[in-house]
Amino acid sequence: MLRAVIPKNARSKRALDARAPKEVEDERTAIFVRGSHTGEVLNGVIKDLMALKRPHAISFSKKNIIHPFETEGVSSLEFWSSKNDATFFVVGTSTKKRPDGLTLVRTFDGKVLDMCEMGVTKFIPMADFKTKKSTPGYKPLMHFASPLFDTHPRLMQLRSLLLTLFNGEAIENIALAGIEHVISVQLGPLPSTSASVPAAPLPGSVDDDPALFPPIFIRTYTLALKSSSTRIPYIDLVPMGPSLDLVLRRHMQPDPVLLAASLKKPKLTKKDVESGLGQKKKMRNKEVDEMGDLRGRVHIGKQDLSKLQGRKVRALKQGLEEVEDVEMDDAENDLMDVDESPKKKRKKD
Amino acid sequence: MDVSGLLASTSKGRSTEVNKDVPLVVDTGLLAVFDPNDIEPEEYSADQEAYLLSVARDGVQALVNALFSLPVQKTADGPLAILPSIETPLPRAKPLPKPKPPTKWEQFAKARGIQKTKREKKVWDEEKQDWVDRWGRKGKNKEIEEQWITEVPANAPDDYDPVKEARDKRKSRVAKNEKQRAANQARAMGPSATAASTSTGLKDSNAWDALSKDDKKGMLRRDALRAKVSTASMGKFDKKLEGEPKLRGIKRKFDPNEGNVESEKSAALALLSKLERNPISSTASAKRPRKDAAGGEGSGENVLNVRKAVRYATKGKGATAFASRDRGRGGKAGRGKGKR
């Protein structure tokens, strides 16, 4: 474990502050780890995934004896995470039992949150597509196609992991001209051997039978914007590569306590809510009509009709006689108060 | 005549609409689109890559439709679409930052309603007619130290060094601030940092912080000694460290029987006058040195310093004057009595 470092100068303090937890987080840095043996396929996969993840990617290009689903493996991942301030891992290991295995590991608070292992069955590298490539550092669009991504825990986890890897960062705005490529994740049909996918995953890091799950296709395309009948462009997709066919293997579901802690959201400030960040807050007294205009309803207080100025009629004016009477009374009072001190009299007035 | 095919073939007039059995779910904040439609086996088996591409195209078109209808903010680098917040819950990488615990001053300022004002780094120098740094090189706080001639008070000793005097004053202010900062930090660390204080009977970490370093050292040493003799053999068979001093008990000391009469008399009178002054709390006053340790005034919850508050309210005349003032005219007599 690392020692708790007390900064001794401004530079190290800045470096520590950059690592400190933030309310709105930056993009996760991913470490691409090569295991004790990686074949040609896995090397290519890691290289191309890194190209997509750059510049938030760190390459561990040497061989590492790592088994992510074992305790020692978890502790090394956590160590690397703390050393490099990286919170995501892509580990490639190829063994006889599980050839071309690709493991996605996500951490929270320096601890491994969850893992998912997949086997690469087919891989076409980026270089084999002689097409335009996206600019490194540009944010990709993500596309997921299958109802299972919303229902099955294992595929929900996979979707969450892939979203975290490529697009987890919250951004305020985007230049529409900077949308260049899309990463599409789709599922094939269910294997003929199984009528349906196993309802719930087995607990812990156990091997689910890969034959029970549909194959996963990851494709990357660049966007070609064409003119259309409307202002919005018509989209054509051009394959960019890499193109991956995967099967699900082992996994580790997140610890519920850790997961709940990791899903905590910061309290929205009043300013953020006003600027429209707090989407869940109900919009009050405002509605959008069928023309698309925002219409507001303003509440004003109850009208006091007693103070309403009616027509001014001389007959309704207060009688002049009454006013004169009042003046007379005052004069009498003055006469009676003669013997009292002047101070008191003034008070009475 | 059906021209839809003809229209579709030309680049213009192509529709950007996406029609699916189940509508697509778009999370614009995340730049992601989720297509919950089932796979179509015939088209898939006919040409897998073409099918995947067409499904992806429809999804991306739906997402682009949503992105292009977002409100736009114009900048020098071109228009920016303002994205809404992310709807899909994704786990964070690090826990939410903890709010910084308030310093003692911040607590006090909050209790008194003191607004924080930003302190400018520059101050106006009347002589130079210019803005100078408040601190740092050629700072205003080093003015006396750095000026070439300094007025020496008439009654100053021979070795009076005005530069050293000013410098020591400044350094002591820095040291005081540093001490307060350390105390704030220790308080912020919580009870774990002051675990030792519990063994010495100080429940409140603030009370422990308020003690001087020597007091703390003494308390810890006493605790260590007590722990050492807290075995069945009273520490006789315990492993000794190298160079560990031998334990010696404290010997009681008595004053000689025939001593100085004058000092004995003054000590007795002092005790009597002490008892007379506050007869009710005489027992409590015997424990006065430990008042801080009991966690009364120095504790974090009660930032009001009662002693200072009384002094302020009575304009420096003390609590007795405060009480007698309420009685009205008796105040004068009471004050006189106190002075005697």
UniProtKB/TrEMBL annotation, chain A:
Nucleus keyword on record: yes
Record field: compositional bias (Acidic residues): 321-339
Keywords in alphabetical order: Nucleus
Segments forming domain Brix: 28-257
Organism: Serendipita vermifera MAFF 305830
Listed name of the protein: Ribosome production factor 2 homolog
Region (Disordered): 320-349
Pfam family of the protein (one): Brix
Gene Ontology MF term list: rRNA binding
Similarity field: Belongs to the RPF2 family.
GO annotation, cellular component aspect: nucleolus
InterPro entries: Brix (IPR007109), Rpf2 (IPR039770)
Localisation per UniProt entry: Nucleus, Nucleolus
Top-level taxon in the UniProt lineage: Eukaryota
Any GO BP annotation: maturation of LSU-rRNA from tricistronic rRNA transcript (SSU-rRNA, 5.8S rRNA, LSU-rRNA)
Lineage: Eukaryota, Fungi, Dikarya, Basidiomycota, Agaricomycotina
Keyword Nucleus belongs to the record: yes
Automatic annotation (TrEMBL), chain B:
Subcellular location as annotated: Nucleus
Region (Disordered): 91-122, 146-217, 276-340
Biased composition (Basic residues): 330-340
GO biological process: ribosome biogenesis
GO CC term (a single one): nucleus
Compositionally skewed regions (Pro residues) per UniProt: 92-102
Pfam families: RRS1
Keywords: Nucleus, Ribosome biogenesis
Skewed-composition ranges (Polar residues): 194-203
Protein function: Involved in ribosomal large subunit assembly.
Family listed: Belongs to the RRS1 family.
Protein name listed in UniProt: Ribosome biogenesis regulatory protein
